[in-house]
Write a structure and sequence with these properties.
Blueprint (H helix, E strand, L loop, with lengths): L5 H12 L7 H8 L3 H13 L4 E5 L2 E5 L13 H13 L3 H13 L4 H21 L5 H14 L13 E7 L2 H16 L3 E7 L9 H10 L7 E7 L3 H15 L7 E5 L10 E3 L2 H10 L1
Parallel strand pairs: 3-4, 3-5, 5-6, 6-7
Antiparallel strand pairs: 1-2
């Protein structure tokens, strides 16, 4: 089966398995009109992403859909997904959080709302729990780790486009998670998105040439698009990062686009200035 849409394949597969109690790979391939070899490859991929469940029954492997509690209808269920995901993060249950993300992807959640309406509220909730004294430093670190771990379930099923490259940087631990959220969503849109984490500790020592080398190495092939994203929750932090990245984009990394993500008032001339990770994903999709 050539030229198929992986998202459509997921939809058809879940519809076939819903309420079936489990089917073998051969039965699934026959029902969907796909070769057994191709179907086997995608069944393994979907199971690894948490989209499907598998179990042994004698000599056979049976594939089944997730529990009904992990099923969503989008766009109506973003709020429910955010609530369940946030509860898993605050409950320090990374496996449950990853399963929810995988179920969202399997049921058609769009990348940008996942970043802005599911991940960001959980990042904010974890930050509040620490600020309010409801979670200690170690627990806050575990929550951030759970969020980062669960973002790996944001898989689009296809290969990234070799002509669209992005580097994302931030200040602060929460900013780094927002950058990861944007990167995960952008990968679902086909970008080779590389978050490099919190650079606030090294921003004063970071030379323009260092950043230029990084952006040059990350550059897309001729005719492609390379974009640098700087994320901060303060205008001052965004202005500091943005100035350094802007200089690099005008140097050896000339032609690299710059998107600043955070409050207005940073005073930096950028190709785009947006408020949050979801807006950054939308801007990237427009290029």
């Amino acid at each position: 089966m050539r030229g198929y849409d992986v998202v459509e394949l997921r939809r058809r597969l879940l519809g076939l398995l819903d309420g079936s109690g489990g089917m073998t790979g051969s039965e699934i391939a026959r029902e969907l009109g796909i070769s057994r070899v191709t179907m086997s490859r995608h069944l393994d991929s979907f199971a690894s992403a948490g989209v499907l469940r598998r179990r042994r029954a004698g000599n056979a492997t049976l594939w089944s859909a997730p529990d009904a509690s992990a099923r969503f209808e989008f766009p109506a269920d973003y709020a429910r997904a955010a609530s369940e995901y946030g509860a898993a993060i605050l409950g320090l249950d990374p496996d449950r959080a990853a399963a929810i993300v995988a179920a969202c992807v399997a049921h058609g959640a769009a990348p940008a709302p996942m970043a802005g309406e599911v991940f960001v509220p959980a990042i904010e909730a974890a930050g509040r729990a620490y600020a309010d004294g409801k979670a200690g430093r170690a627990e806050a670190a575990l929550m951030r780790g759970a969020i980062s771990f669960s973002m790996a379930a944001m898989r689009g099923g296809g290969d990234p486009e070799p002509t669209r490259h992005a580097v994302l940087m931030a200040d602060g631990a929460d900013g780094a998670l927002r950058a990861e959220a944007a990167a995960a969503a952008m990968r679902m849109e086909g970008w080779r998105a590389m978050p490099i984490g919190d650079i606030s500790a090294s921003i004063d020592a970071l030379l323009d040439t260092d950043l230029e080398r990084l952006l040059v190495r990350a550059r897309a092939p001729r005719g492609g698009i390379t974009a640098a994203f700087a994320l901060s929750e303060t205008a001052g932090g965004l202005g500091t990062m943005g100035s350094i990245v802007r200089s690099a984009c005008r140097g050896a990394a000339r032609g690299t686009l710059l998107c600043l993500c955070g409050p207005d008032g940073h005073g930096v001339d950028a190709d785009a200035s947006v408020r949050g990770p979801a807006d950054a994903v939308h801007w990237a999709a427009s290029l």
